[in-house]
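Could you join me in thinking about how sequence relates to backbone shape in a protein? We need material for that, and I hope you will provide a protein of your own picking. Label the sequence line and the structure token line clearly, so we can match residues to local backbone shapes. Would you write everything just below, so we can both look at the same thing?
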Amino acid sequence: LVLTELVERATAHGFHALFARIVAGHEASIGLHAALGFEVVGTELEVGRKFGRWLDVTVMELILS
């Protein structure tokens, strides 16, 4: 998976944390990130817009070791 490779490369390059911003309610994407260790750290309310509708964004974080 591309996300797995991203996490591996970030770790190899000394990154301390990765963040993901996902449209709230996209459970498949949230689940994918959670399976790799990302945790929900917050929600940004009405920061995205699509098809004339305001969208909330779920913020997830992974602390790298």
